[in-house]
Design brief:
Number of domains: 2
Shape: globular
Distance between the termini: 94 Å
Number of helices: 10
Strand order of the largest sheet: 5-4-8-12-10-11
Strand content: 15-25%
Radius of gyration: 26 Å
Structural class: alpha/beta
């Protein structure tokens, strides 16, 4: 009887434990359901907000949008044909053109949490009295002697510059003003740019950052510059008198007028521009544009010649005599996508041959020389169609590339630094999450740390850039921070073809 009682008590306890466990599972399921419901409701609220915003748009503007829609599609395709012959593709899958097509029915991707990685401080460079103030320390640029992009001083003092503090003009063309989320995005961008300029920063958290961006000003406007009769962003309009009032900087030589953007660049008030756009506004813009002076092999400017050194460019944008980058950020996405824009701009600067020295070495680092290096029938993996895995690695030092039905087997394969879409072990476009190790010299590129002056080879995999997920969580952002940290930066150990120390690449951004 005693044993039976003990057994019954034990069974009772077991049943109680099972019931509690079942209740916990049920509770977790209910919580999960509530979480999903909350997420769905949030999406519905966002969609309702977009719908109400659209309904509040003036009727004549809505009619104008409808009237120009067909022309916009034709115009973008024509633009893309001019750029790279991909006009017959849907614009959303032709990234080589640099065109960002913002359509209401396009997916905008995962939105990063508002506070993710917001460790950088946004510092204003505009004192109460007017324009920026400049340091007397000539190891820092801009300074009391040189303030503006493309100054000859930058070229002459390239090797002695220890830090650059470029002024960033932020334009918010979205509805709702400068929201907390947008300001967080700016902080994240400044912080990630800083971290990405720490040469081999993953080895030492104390590695000096070379780029310390300062926010010159944040301005809000729903006056979006569009080309007449279209939904195409008008970059040239940003440099006109119409937007001088938006910048709000009084001309010190004529207090009755405001300085235009070209004048802000000329005076060294602004060195780079980023604008936020809202996909619901349905207009086309490039990811990142830059007009840049051309230099010869001795770093001398070639008269007043210039080139489009970004990821695409607006032929109507005026040449102002100095370089200036304009980066377009989708407000519904995170700054990782903005990093992708800037990465393509790096590639654009090299492909435009704006600075021959930079072109020579960047193309090698970014593996844009595959025809010469490996005898492939193309110069880079960008030739691969998007969405197809045509690169495989049977082992860490073998790559098999399928091209037009033919396999090219590369034995003793060692990748260099890779590029925006293709990390060293990428199997297709945007493949930054491959854990399969592939041999690469990315961390010792042209350093020659091994016996005989050979570069040290690592097993590159997605784990190398995992630490940067929180800094730039969407698009190729995490990979690109790591990628940029391995470029020859401040006090780098790389050598050029003559065996001399490689120049720091960051000052080239402001040549």
């Amino acid at each position: 009887m005693k044993n039976l009682l003990v057994t019954l008590i034990g069974v009772g306890l077991l049943v109680s434990v099972l019931l509690v466990a079942r209740e916990r599972v049920t509770l977790r399921q209910e919580l999960s359901g509530l979480h999903q419901t909350t997420y769905t409701l949030a999406q519905q609220v966002q969609a309702l907000t977009v719908m109400l915003t659209a309904q509040n748009t003036r009727q004549e503007e809505a009619v104008a949008r409808l009237a120009t829609l067909a022309g916009d599609v034709s115009g973008v395709q024509e633009l893309m044909r001019e750029r790279n012959g991909t006009g017959d593709q849907p614009a959303a899958v032709a990234p080589a053109s640099g065109v960002v097509v913002t359509r209401k029915d396009m997916r905008t991707g995962d939105v990063a949490p508002a506070g993710a990685g917001a460790t950088g401080l946004v510092t204003t460079a505009v004192p109460a009295g007017g324009g920026p103030q400049y340091t007397s320390d000539l190891r820092i640029w801009p300074n009391a002697v040189s303030r503006a992009n493309s100054d000859e001083w930058i070229v002459q003092n390239h090797d002695s510059i220890r830090r650059m503090e470029p002024r960033l003009l932020v334009i918010n063309f979205t509805s709702g003003g400068a929201t907390a989320r947008l300001r967080d995005q700016v902080r994240q961008l400044v912080s990630a740019l800083r971290k990405s300029s720490q040469y081999h920063g993953y080895r030492s958290g104390t590695a000096p950052a070379f780029l310390e961006y300062q926010v010159f000003k944040v301005v809000n406007s729903r006056d979006i510059p569009l080309k007449q009769g279209s939904r195409v962003f008008d970059y040239g309009a940003l440099f006109g008198e119409r937007y001088a009032r938006l910048w709000g900087m009084t001309d010190p030589d004529n207090t009755s007028r405001k300085l235009r953007l070209d004048e802000l660049v000329e005076r060294g008030y602004v060195h780079e521009v980023v604008f936020f756009f809202d996909p619901v506004d349905q207009y086309q813009c490039f990811e990142c544009v830059e007009m840049k002076p051309r230099y010869d092999a001795q770093f001398k400017r070639i008269s007043n010649t210039w080139c489009q050194a970004g990821n695409g460019g607006d032929g109507d944008q005026p040449w102002i005599g100095r370089s200036v980058r304009i980066n377009a950020l989708n407000a519904m996405r995170g700054i990782g996508c903005g990093f992708e824009n800037l990465g393509h701009s790096f590639e654009g600067m090299a492909n435009a041959d704006a600075i021959p020295y930079f072109t020579r070495y960047f193309r090698e680092y970014a593996m844009l020389d595959l025809e010469t290096r490996y005898g492939l029938p193309f110069n880079s993996f960008y030739a691969m169609p998007i969405g197809k895995q045509l690169i495989n690695y049977p082992n860490r030092s073998t790559a098999v590339i399928t091209w037009h039905g033919q396999d090219y087997c590369l034995t003793n394969y060692v990748a260099a630094g890779g590029n925006v879409h293709f990390p060293p072990n990428a199997r297709m476009h945007y493949d930054q999450d491959n854990d399969q190790p592939v041999a690469s010299t990315i961390e010792d590129w042209r350093c020659g740390s091994e016996p005989g002056g050979k570069d040290h080879v690592i097993n590159y995999s997605a784990r190398m850039m995992e630490r940067y997920r929180k800094d730039a969580p969407d698009c190729m952002g995490a990979w690109l921070i790591y990628w940029r940290q391995n470029m020859p930066g401040l006090d780098n150990k790389s050598k050029d073809d003559a065996g001399k120390p490689m120049k720091n690449w960051w000052p080239f951004l402001f040549y």
